[in-house]
Every structure is written in C-alpha cells, then in structure tokens.
Protein 1
Amino acid sequence: MKKNILATCGLLFCTSLLHAQTTEEVRIDFENQNYKALGVYDTWLKSPFRSQNKQAAVLEGNVQVVSNIDKNYDEILKATPNASNNVLGFQRSRFGSNTFGARIDLKQPFALTKETKYVHVMIHKPKAGRTMLIGLGKRTDRKGQSVDTEQFWELSTREVEPNKWVDAVFPVKGAGGIEIHSLVVVVDCEDTNGMKDDFLAYIDNIVVNNEAFTATNREDYPMNYSKDAKCSRTDRGLKGISLGDQTFNLYSDITTSTPAYTYLSKQSFLAKPGETLNPAVQYKGVWMHSYVYLDLNNNGRFEPKVEGGQIVPNAGNELLAYSFLGGEDENSGYNSAGTEISGNGRNTLVMPEFTLPSDLQHGFYRMRYKVDWNSADAGGSIENNNHILNNGGGAIDVRLNVHGDNVKIYQGALNGKVVAEDGTELNGISIPFGKPYTIKMKPEHGFNFSGLKVRHGYNLTGDSISHGTYQYVDELIPRERFNADGTFTLPAEMIDGDVSLEGIFIDAKTALTYEVYFNNEFVYSTVVNGAKTGAVTIPEGLARDYVELTADKQTITSLPATVRINATWTAPMKVATPADTTWYNLKVSNQPRWVSSGNYTPNVYFIDESYITTDYALWALTGNPYSGFRLINKAMGPTMVLASASPKGSAKAGGNTYATLLPADNLPAGYTSDWTVTISPNDDEGFYICNPEGFGLNYRADGNLAYWTGGKDAGSTFVPTEVKKTSTGIHALIFQNDSATTYDLAGKTVSKSHKGVVIRNGKKMIVK
C-alpha cells in the first residue's frame, strides 16, 4: 500500500470568478461537508481499486480534504482563481486505469435531462491534458438498477493547464429519467502505460448550471469581448466565410441572437503548403474591414506584425490578409498587398490573396476571420469610440487543414488484422488524401469482429487537442455498418490526415445478435459480444421513445445466436403503411397555431384554425424510429420531405434555421430529413420533432417552423389530430419495401449490386 502523500498538502476554493448561476442544482466547495462521502472509482473492472470476487480491493486510494496549496494572484486573470481554505486532494495512482478518479457522492442526486447542463469543476494538477467526468446513478424507471451505474463519460471542453487552478467544464445530458448520485473527477485520462510515478491533483468548487463558459479564461485565441456575446445591431453582421471556392454560410440574416463569435471546431478549410489562397467574408453591411489570421507557430495566439498599416517583413507575421489598415491617420492606409487606400476606397471588405509558407508542416492550424474597423488586434478593437461590437463586427474561427497529396494509414489489433480491400497490409502505406478508402476486417481463426476504432488527423500519438484546436478525431464504426464480407469504406472526410485503425476482435463463440423489425421489416441490428446463455435481456441501446420491444425468444441456450426484436409503435401519430396512410394536423401545444406548407414554401409556417382543412395542413409520418422518420405534406406530394440545416448558434438561438420542404432525393449538403419523435412532458398527447443532434423544431414568434437550441418546451411540442386516411399516393417514396430498394444490415440504402447480406422486399438475402 502506498504511503498517504496527502497528509501535509493543501488546496483552494473561489467563487469570485464564477459566472452568474442559472438553475444551480449542485454546489460542493469542501469548506463544509456538503457532500455525502468521498472515495475513488475506476471503470476498469480489474482495477486494484475495485473489489474482486467479493474480496476487498487491493488498494484503497488516497483522497481527502486538505488545505489549499495555491492562493496566488493570477496576472492573466487579474484575480485570485481560488482563495478557499479547503479543497479535495487526490493521489493519481499509476496503478489505476485512464478512468481512475476521485469519487464524490452527492447528498442529493440531480437529474440528467435531454437538455445539456454544464458541470464546472476547479482542478489543479501538475500535468497538462484533458480531464474526464463520469456520472454514476440510475434510471428512475429501472427498479433495482444500482446507483453506481455509469450514466455518462464526458471529456472537458478544453485542456486543463498545469500548475494553475482551472475551471474545467463538462457538458452533460441524457435520455431523461436519470438521477446522478455520484460524480467521478478523472483528473488525468491519458493512458497510464507510460506513467512512472503517482502525482497529486486538487479538486474544488463543483457546480452544475447552464453556463457553458469557463470561469478561468486564460484561453487560447482570446477575443477582447465575451465569446458568448450576441450581435448588438441587425443592420450589420458577419454571416459566413470562404477560402477560394470553399465556403461556410452560417447565418441567413443578422438578429440580436446571432453570435458575434463562432468557432467551427470540427470543420476546416483545405490548403497545401505554398498554395496561394483567396479569402473573403459574407457580411451584411458596409464601411467595415476584414482580416484573416493564421497561427503559423501553433502557440495559441494570433500575432500580427504590422506597422503603419503595412506588414513587417520577416517578422513572423500571422495577419495574412486584410482589406484596410491605417497608420496614425485612419483616413488613409494600406491593404495586405501593400496597395495604398484612402477616402471612399476604405469602404471595402475585399482582401488580397495570400500565399502559405512552402515549408509549412502538414497539420491543423487555427484560422480567424474578423470584421472590424481599422484594427490589427485579433481580439477586436474595444476602444470607446471604435468598439467592434458597437460597429457591428465579429469573428469566426475555423481550422485550416494543411495537407499533402497523400496520407499514411496504419493498423494495430489483437486477434486479427485490418487490411486493404485487396488484402494489402496497412503498415504505413500511402493513400490519396480526401478520397474514400475501403478496408477489410480479417479476424484470426475462432474470432469475429465487433467494430473498428478510427483515429484520423495529425500527430496521432500526441494529444488530440492543441490550444483548443482538434488535431485528430476518434470515431467508432460499429459492426452493423460493415458489409457482410467484412469490408467498410472509410468516407472521404475520415481521410483528412493520417489514419490509424484498431480492429475490435472478439471470441466468435460469444456473439449474440439482436435484429430489430418494425412493421415486420428489418430496420436495425446490434451485436453483444461476451454474451452468456440464459434469459434474454433486450439491450438498453435499442430503446426508443414510443417503442415497445418484445423478443421472439426468452432464453438463449447456445452461442452464437440471433434474437429477433419486434418494435411496436405507440405514439399518438401513426406511422404510414401502404394500406393505411393517416394524415394529421400538427398543432403547437401552447398556441392556436398549426403547421402548414401553405403559400410560403419552401419555408414551413404556422397558420390559424381557419385553414387547417386544406391539404397544406395535412402531414404524414413515414420511416421508423431507428433510421429516422420523415414527414411529408399532402399538398406538396410524396417526393418532398421536411428538412433543415443544422441550427446555428447557442442558448436561445436557432430561430433563423428554418424547416423547409425539399426533394427527398436531392437534399443540399448539410441538410437532414431524418427526424426523431420523442416524448414531450408538456402535453400527454404531444411530442418533440428533433434533428439527429437532438435539437427540437419550435414555433417561433415570426410564424416560422425553426429551432430553439436552448431547450424544448410547449413551443416545441406538437399535438397531432387525425384527419383522414388514404391507401394510395405515397407508396413510392416512404415505405422502402419495393423491390427496387436494397438495404444493408444497418438499414441504409445500398445499390442492387452491393455484395453481402442485404435486405430487399423486407427479406434478408445474400448477394455474391
């Protein structure tokens, strides 16, 4: 047993830097015992900190309330981050897994809801990197479920800087009906294989609220105003950005809910070293200037090197393009090409092209587009008479993917290999950048595979985030997305840098496959590995709102095996079938308003009761709760479906992202027509209509069917009323059971020549 190295150590606590709280439900500060108990926790089942075979754990773990070690004034924050007397000390053991952490049992549980909440935890540790929060609790509708059931694992929204108090923020949400009884703070979630010594970390001031922003903002790439600020005027505003023919159109119009700063953290422009690029902004308004920055040295700051309105040569300048900068007299100045500009010529947002350094290393770089008036400051001018927000300016950050023609692909796994479709070993071979690539799973004898872990980007063995900028992304490809022959085509967006593949191979004798049928058609499947014989338990992952699940057998007597799951729909709006297409009016719960395509197409509007008898106000639900539902309008016909882009903004934004009716076979990039129907607590007969990200459509005050990304309420609740039934008219589009349509085992449309096990005409078959 290790010596308790916490005995003489201390910690801190501070409330002065916290943002104003909203819907605060939990607050733990360690000055008083406002918690139930303290301990340690490890998700690794064989951890020495867990009991094995009902025997005591080998190691106890060191965690206790101690004195504050750091009450220092922070020069960057201009405040003392944490001035409390007592904090929680925790010994990060090298014998624990990467999910070993300090466990705090709550006096009162809090609800994990479908709306995102934010858990703030002050952390002080000697090692940089990501942290994790694990929530332990139970579902209220599961009698006998342990309060130690893991309900969420969530990484902090940013890295925790070493040797400083940092307010780590964890966004958490669930399916609803979940109580969180304990929080596990994983101060270091890196692999422990290279960890030689334990270290001390400190935890304080745990708060659950609706505030997404950290209280210790020593942030990378700062703005000179709050990054959650909204536009202060509607006649001016930054709507989008482009780089050559690559464009991100973010906001259709500018309102007082439009963000004045946006970070496209997972999106990127593409470029090559030495390439000449033409940047531009989409801006509503005139008499402003545009600027583009690139963090060439990846140090978390944009560093402009300009004098008298002109770029200083050979000084490491990171302000690469601008439409105007003045010297001492703003009546005249220059653009980034050195062209002199004065008078009315200053009314320009047109930036000259710029050329990337030819020796720039491949990787992801942070890039900023800013609209401001005559200011080289990447954070924006905040002078009293020239404030960026008062002027209608703003900024958008995005990644720049600097790449070559080819990337490397690797694989590594136990009990099998991942190879190219033709069997080529993936040992660092070159493949074309940005092109789909087909791989094949090759398990050893006696093994099968349950999925594939894909890491793609740059610096794959390092930290995934550098100064808040993603360098690579980890994705899991489940077994059901593979073809029957074990092949899978990595989409082009995964070949955005080097690629590392880890096959998940399992003992083939322990596989239990669940196949879900909806209206007697196969729609979804999942494989449970390491299964045992005995009573059938339907996996929680198959649960959907308004769906009752029943298995075709009660007991598994041998493995491998397959269980058929029949899904019965119980919602107040029926799903159409060829023999019974039921049309409904859709009323918003808290208003006498009904959804209609009306004469306002392509946007969908709300009407009053006098028009609800028209075909424009009649809607039918098609599809299934696994691959998604579609909504069609009787007046518009079966080829048009309700669709939308992803809503932009945060809090109560999203009102400018409208639902529209578009051709089902020709949706614009970024649009979805697949919806989930979920239970609404605001009306027993109503439901939410949500996009794949979980944002609900909403009745907006301007009469549009749009979004409220801040939550769901009665305005997001739709109550259906049955109007009429038909037996013809929409069969060709939505029932997906005609002989011309073929699906793979995940319920996705594939070509007729697709090889492997497929679904056609509601039946499984093998195409060789």
Protein 2
Amino acid sequence: MKIALLRQAPLLMLPALFPLQLMAADNASNTMVVSAAPAGSGLSELDTPAAVSVVSGDDMRHAAPRVNLSENLTSVPGLQIQNRQNYAQDLQISVRGFGSRSTFGLRGIRMYVDGIPATMPDGQGQTSNIDIGSIDHIEVLRGPFSALYGNSSGGVINVETQTGQQPTTLEASTWFGSYGSWRNSVKASGATGDGTQAGDVNYTVSASRFTTHGYRDHSSAQKNLGNAKLGVRIDDVSTLTLLFNSVHVDAQDPGGLTEAQWKDNPRQVASNVTLYNARKTVDQTQAGLHYQRQMSENDDLSVMLYAGERETTQYQSIPRATQLQAGYPGGVISLSRHYQGIDTRWTHRDTLFTLPVTVTGGLDYETMTEKRKGYQNFVGNDLGVQGDMRRNERNLMWNLDPYLQTAWQFTDKWSLDAGVRLSTVNFDSNDYYVTATDPDDSGNRRYHRWLPAASLKYAIDNSWNAYVSAGRGFETPTLNELSYRSAAQTGLNMDLKPATSDTVELGTKKRIGNGLITAALFQTDTQNEIVSDSSYEGRTSYKNAGETRRRGLELGLDQQFGENWQFKAAWTLLDARYRSNACGTDSCDGNRIPGIARNMAYAGLAYAPEQGWYAGGDVRYMSDIAADDENDVKAPAYTVVGVNSGYKWLVQNWTLDLFGRVDNLFDRNYVGSVIVNESNGRYYEPAPGRNYSVGLTVSYAFQ
C-alpha cells in the first residue's frame, strides 16, 4: 500500500484540522511513502472529508476590480456574500446562514489571512485588510469541522497570499469603473534561490489605493492598503515567515432605505444621514511571525505569533433628542483595539496497530484590549461633530483553546479524522463613565465549551469518495453585541448567552475528467441562537432566539473542458427556521430566520486561454430574503447577469492584460442586502444598476 502526505500545514488553517491528508493509491505497491509539499500549497478539495471549496488567486483577479471578495467568490456553494455598497460597514458574508444577522463586518465565521485571524477573539471580523492582488488561493470550509476553530458556527475562510519565487516580477495595475470608482496598485515579488538552501529568501510586497464616489448618495470611500510577506529558510529543517499588513479606510455611511424610498429612488439616503454626516474611519496595522521546524522525520513544530492595533471612529445618524436621554451612550463611537495571539502546534506521524496515524496537539491563545468611548454627535447647533463624552469603558477579551486532532487510515478505502477543542472565552468590562443618571455598568462573563468533530470517509475509487461528519460549534456574543440593550436600556447586554450548534453532514465528491462535482446534505440545530433584536439609527441590539434549525443541500461543479474553456455552477438550498418564539409577544415559531436566502444559484462560463482574446459571463440568482423575524418584510428575489472580455499579450518578459466588464447587464433594480429588524423600517440596501469598468495590468519578469 502506498500512502502520500499531500501537504504540510498552510499556516493555521485546515492542516490544524486535517494534519495530514491521506490518499489511498497504487494498490500494486505495499510501500508506505510519506512526503510533504511546501507550506501554502493548499488542500485537496477531493480528498478532504468535509465541505470545502478552493478558489485560486488567478480566478479572483480575472477581469475583476480586485476591491471586494464578493466579485469572484459567489461560485462557492453555501456562501452568501453580498456587497452592501457601504464601505463603512464592510461586506455581508454568511456561511450556511451563520453571519446573516451582522449589521457590519463578519460574524459567525472565522477568517484567517496568512494564518493571522481576521476575526477577533470575540468573533467579530472584517475583510478590508485583504489584498486581492496578492492572493494565492482562498479556502472556504463549511460544516462540522469549522467547530475546531473555536468561536464560530458557520465556517472558516482562509486566505493565503502568494509566496515570492523566481524570477523577480514587478506589476502595476489600474481599474476604472462607474460612479467615480478607481483603483491603482503595485506589486513586487521574487526570491533568491529555490527555497531549499539555508539563507534563501522570498518576498511579495504590494500596495493599492481605491476611491469611489459610491452608487448611492453619501457613500463615497477611500481605502489605502499595504501587504508584505517575507520568508527565510534558516537551515535545512526550519523556515521563518514575516507578515505585515496595514489598511486605512475612510467611508461615508448611507444607511438603509424603506421599501417606498427604494422604489422611488434607490440612490437616495434618509435625511438624518446627511444631516449628521454619518461616516466611519478605520486604521489597522498588524504583523506576524511564523516559525516552522521539522523536528524529525515524524515530527513537525509550528509557532505563529501576531499582534496588531485597530482604531475606529464612527459618526452615527442618531437624533440629538435621543442622545439627550439619561444613560444614552451618544452618537459617536471611538474604539481603540490592541490584539495579539500565539498558536503553537506539534504534529506527529506514526503507526498504531500497523495503521498510519497522525496526531496534532496545539494551544491557541488570543487576547484583545478595547477602549470604547462614546460622544454626542453635536456641539450646540453644529451636527456631525464630536461633542460631550457619554461613554468610557475598557473591555478585555481573551480565549485559551487547547486542541487535539487525529487522522487514521484504516485501509485503502476507509479513513477517519477526529478532533476536540476546549474553548474558553472570557469577557471583562470596566465602566469609567459613572454619573447620577448612568450607573456603573462593569461586568464580566466566561464561557466554556467542548467542541468535538469527526468525519468518516470511504474512497469508492481514486476519483470518487463519500463521507459522513458531525461536530459541535460554539459562538459567543461579540463586544458589539454585548454593548447595547434593547428598549433604550442602559448598560451592557450581559443576559446574552453563547449559541451552541450541532451539525450532521453527508457528502460526496467525484472527479470527472478535469472537473470536480460535489454534494453536501446537512442539518444544524442551534440552541440560544444570537439574533438581531432591533436596529435603530445604526445601533443594533441582540437577543437569544431559543432554538433554530438549518437544513440544506449544496451542489457544486467546476469543470474544465476543451483546452481553454471553464464552467462553474453552484446551487444552495437552505431552509433556516426558528423552532421557538423569537418575537416576544408574537409567535415566530416556524418562521424563516431573516437575512438568509432559501435558494442561491450561480453559473459561469469562460473562455480563457493563456494569451490572446478571452471572454466570459455569469448568472446569479438569489431568492427572496426575509428582513424581520415576523417575515412581514422581504427583499424580492432577483437574477443578475455579468459579462467580461479582454485581451492578454505575452511579449518576451512583458505581460499586458486589458479587460472590460459590464455588471447587472439588464439593469435590474434589486436589493443587494438587508438590515435585519431595522426599527425604522429602513431594511433595504440597494444594489447598483447596470455599471461598467475597464482595467489594465502590466507586469515585467526579470529573467
């Protein structure tokens, strides 16, 4: 029997979960061969016993603006990713319905960029620091095994950036689109040596600037982004990788619209939005250090260290009269966050009772200190300016998670992956703003959960397998969800409980020629699901909804045919419902969970040769989405079409890629995303009509 180790851990992501991917092969040989591929080489969609999709960086950049992950990531089944047209609130991303309630940023999923969490210890994340121009590949993990990453329920998104290699290459790219949008970027990558000798160095450095006037009124934004990755081979058995990232975002916040406003003029904003000049500024800088060492033929050590800071200032459109109420925290939010962490992992490969087995043990520690201040957004008659302080607190959150994961290869056909994680999340708040009308709201909470997961896989043949898996997920309230109570009550929302989800999944994968077809059937039952209670003037409070159930089917196809043709298709059926009353006096038992589409479909066809003319198109369908717990308000279903075409020249050491694209080809008027349970009825965030863009990328390789 011949067994191959497909790859070593790409930093923190799936190899921590599947420390070794075992592939049954070559029945003619009884020799066991274990070999490791370079870190960052990704994972096998076919052999991984879980619902996982891998999207290459080239696909993310192909004829695309390279600004948002939503551009070319919609082909992943089970992933609902929507551009709010609001850079003050980031993308709206959910996996199997988890994360749909988030009014800003990421929630319910874990995201990593080169092994550094883009999700804070409390479970809140963001995508603004991801440089699409430097992506090597993106891995999207859905289902039970995401539980082994701790504080999340829906899934894991791992972004790996490019590792520099020879020859040295310089690249410049520009893009211009509708609504005064443009992006300019530069990138340099290269290496000394082939990475196998002591002293070999590789590097990838990039910088970009994006500016837009915005589709809607009061939605302009600017973003400056820098990213760097430097790797050094220390000796024959160890490497060190230095990571650096910095982003600055300055964006206006257009807020949502009522149904009547959307139908009358989808580009408008509510009057108080401009009156108070709603906006947000974000500055984030982080650095990481990843050390890998092969301790012996059977043992590997990985240590990931990182630290960063994030400064956020947000001006909300909250009326002055509301802010003057006793205990109200104001209309300006000022956040200063410092975060750091370490993930240490040991992997051992051996045999037990003659069966190949791999055991990985690790300890993950993350901590975040937040200084949260609130101010009135007026001074006298001047609106949209910082006024008197109304909130001042220091919040500390940390999590300490030991974990153990194993992979067993019983026979050529059968294998078992199993693991457990003990997740401990601690929240502590110290209130420094105490007055006669605003009492001391200090408090603390600690949450514990055992998070087991297991998957049994059967290889029907070398190109077809089936698996069954089960696992438990754990999701604590974020700092933002704890920050506000409903019904204008003061203080922290300490009554919120963590949500616990149990998932069972049955899946199969089949390689067909140069393509892969996947199918996954799942059910997730959640206790104490955290959902939006109400959203008023940009401030959202949350509650526990009791029990919910998600049942779904995910189908995916990625097929290459001919020499230069590619077809991608995905369909997701997701029935997500309350199983208890989440509406207070009105019964919501059996209602759909808001923010989640029941059906999503994608189909894309591309003709993409290595050089010369290329073209492609895609169709996206989204069924209607409930916007409130009562299901009284829904965003209508829609179908949109996009087309692109371009020409690529390869001339000696030069590469030139010129393209144009049209999105929403038939000028469909639709709602791109919803704000769940918005108290003023401004649920809708409109998507742009037909829009155009052109781009040019020029690169030179020093050969």
Protein 3
Amino acid sequence: MAAITDKLGVNEWSMYFSGDDYEVFKDNVDYDFEMMNQLPINWVRLGTTYVDSLVTADGFDWSHLDYAVAKAKNIGLKVIMPVWFVTDGLTNKTNVDYQQALINWRKLITSLVHHYQGQGITYEAFDEATGGGHYWLNQDAQANITDIVSMNNYFARLVATDDTASYITGDFPWLGDPNNIDNAITAVKLGMLNVGQAASYHPYHQGLPEQALTDKDELNLRQQFANHNLPIVATEYGYSVTSNFTGTYTTQQQSDYTLRQTLLMDMLGFDKMIAFTMDNSDKGWAFQHNYYDGSKGVFNQVGSDYQQFFTELLGYTFSARVTTDSQDDYLLAYTAPNKSDKLVYWTAADNHAITVGGISYQLTGTPEITTMEQLPSQYQLATIQLISGIDVDWPQYWQQVCQVNANNITATLNTISNTMLNRFDIPAPVFAPYAIPLPVDDSQAYVWQQTMFMTITGQINQLITVFNSYNWLTQDDGSYWPNISSEGLTGLALSDVQKQQLSQNWAAMTVAINNLINKINQVTQ
C-alpha cells in the first residue's frame, strides 16, 4: 500500500477555466495554489468543459488550463483532469442542440488529449454524468445512458494513445439518490468499467462518514470496481457548513468528518482521496478563506486541521485496525520506515475512555494521533495443514481424509470470516459443514468427491471475493487474490496418478486458505 499522503489531493473547480478576465482568473488560481502548497498532498483535480469563448479556428484556447497545470507542476502536484458536460460555458444556455453538443464535446476531449500528449496527465470520466440533469447537459441520464457510456469509453480510448497518461473511469455521483444508484449499475452493465486503470465515485454522505463501511449501495459499487480489478478513487468528498444535498454541518463536524472519512477510505484501500475543495470561491466547502475576504491567506478550521493532521502522518502507511470491544471505536495503526509507529483513534459514538493493550485512550469524535513504540498484541490465526491422502489406507480414505479435511476447512473459513467481521467490520459469509453423507461404496465415490471439492473451492472463492473488495487485504504486490480450482477429479480409481491429483487438490486449498490467514496476521501486527 502507498503512504496515505501519497494518495491525498484536492479539487480546483473548472469555473476558472472559462472565458473570464484572464488577470482575475490568474489571481484566484495563484492564491489557491499558494494555499495548496502548504498541504501534504500529491494530487490536484483540474476540470474543464466546452466554453464557446475558448473555441478558435484551430480548435481550443487552452491557455487558462495550461496556466493551472503549470502551477500544479511547479509545486509538485500531479493532475487529475475530468470533463464536465454542462451548459455553464455556453453563450446560449437554452435550446441547446444535444446531438451537436455530443459532437462538440468529442472535439473537446480529442483536442484536450492531443494538447497534453506526453505530460503524464491522469484523465477522468465525465463528471457525475450518470446523475444526469445539470451534469449531462440537462438531459435525463437513464434515457441517454448509452451516450454517456459511449463518450466515456471514447475518452478512454483517446487517453490510451498517450503512454504517459492514464484514465479513471466512472466518476459516479453520490449514492444518496436512488436514481444515481440505478444509473451507475446500468452503466456498469453497459461496459463503463471495461476501460481505464481505476474507477471513481463521489462518496458524499448525509451524516457520519462511518456509514461507508455498511451502506449496501457503496459496498455494491466498490464490489463492482473490484470485480473489474479497478482500484477505487474518491475524486470528490467532504462536508459543507452551508445547507446543501448532504445537510448542514458545524465547522467542528466539517473538520472531524472530513478527517475521519479520509482515514476510513485509506483503511479500505482507496487508491486516491481527493477532497472537495480548494476552490476559494466555494465558501461552504473550501479549505481556505475566500480570496476577496479580509482573511485572505488563512485556512479555515477544516483546512488547518487537515494540514496539521496529515502532515503528522506524512509518509505513513495504514497497517491495521486494532481490535476493540465496540465497532464504533476506531484505532488505526500506521507505520513508516525508520519512524515510530503511530496510532490514530476516534469514536463514532459518545465520548468515552477505553484501555487496549494496557494503554488508556480517551476517544472523541475528533481523530487524535499518538506515537507508539509497540502496537497492542493481536491474536494470531493458526495456519491449516490438510491431509494429502497419498499415504493413507485407501479403503478408509473417506473417514481418514475427506471428512477430516472438509470439517477442518469449514471451521477455518468461519474463523477467517469472524475475524474479518470482529476486527475490521467487514461482513463475510458463514459456512455450514459439508453434510452430504459419505458414499456407501466406490461406485458413488466420484460424484461425492466432485461435489465436495466444488463446494469447498466455492467457499474459499467467496472469501477471496470479499478480500478483493478491500484493497488493503490484497496481496503484498497490490494484485488481487486469484480464485482457486480443483482439476482432475477422477474418482476413487486407485492409480498413483489419481492419488497424486487428489493430494494436489488438497494442497491447492491449503495454500489458498493460508494465504488469507497470513494476510490477516500481517495486517494485524
């Protein structure tokens, strides 16, 4: 996993890239990047859209966006670049020809990708397009979902022509609107996740950020990403002190919830977390005061707390969630090379004290950081060793091997599931013992044996699917766990080759189960 500060970023809204006065534009952008330069972040999200005033005889005038991209590079920030399909930049915002707009935006993204060829831009899909309305040229998203997916995939194909660039597909809007959920799932079915190197959504919440761990729609969408082997990116998230679709929050809640949401996404293995926003004109959400306020050049509470908190975690990588008696309490361990381990802790419940590993912590809704020389000890899961079957008394094979191994596997898989739930709040399946009666004679051996192996491999693969939906439980190189299969189910003809195949099947299961056990043991150290 990457260090948390390698994943952090902020938004700089596309409103600045219109045809407004160039000097006013530069003053605002200079101010915003001056403030960004004081944050421990690596990314900035700079969007663009079709603007009539920027259309030239040769294509588009990219001078505004060039200026912002150069500012980002000057302070060492990498650029994420989505496109908005909105009327904001059109001179005539009424009676827009939809089909002509599709043509115009294809020209826009073609020019955009060609213009930044070789500059290592990370492009992102059309912003919140599957939400429709304002974000899809005032059109109904469901009625035009094939256009949305087609434009997304065309954009991705353009980006693929630049070896230095990458593409984030999706850009799904918040899931609090049922229509957004339905449209996202439809877009996935139509192939939106078949392109790109990552997938993004905007996990805005009404209330506590911890609901991201249990909300079925978020879990489902993240599972869709995992099914397509796409890392998860949040390109907008946060809380506002002004009334909006997520509610209204105090400055303290805005700060606490923003920090907690960032930490939770890191725990879940998100690849990038891009907070909304560093656009100083968006007063309810911004990290800094407005350019035209008397307090120009000063962070507000959320910006100041974000700066201080993540500067203390600079270079640190999430290691484990420490076990507590309550699922509402969060103790997250972080490590960094040649540095003392750190523990981040808070509660989503009422303030209270707890003792873990002989150390007392006062938990509140505000995340705190402490230095620890040693993390609280964790119970280790025992690895499993299955009987191979090669050297057993074959007339007693069923009792000596199959029944014993099947029962051991069921017990171990349920231990893994319980551990994932109790330690990490990850819902995992519960498995019943393999209960098909033993074969009466050898004539029924093949069917019984085949069914047994298919059942057990299916159970293991269910757990692997759960693992693959949480990137921090993936393999050490960041890749996903491969499913296992049992080949050569030959029944109980007792040739040496067939005995060997049966033993190989048990060995494959041993390796797969122990891979999961070892990863859990690793992340809880």
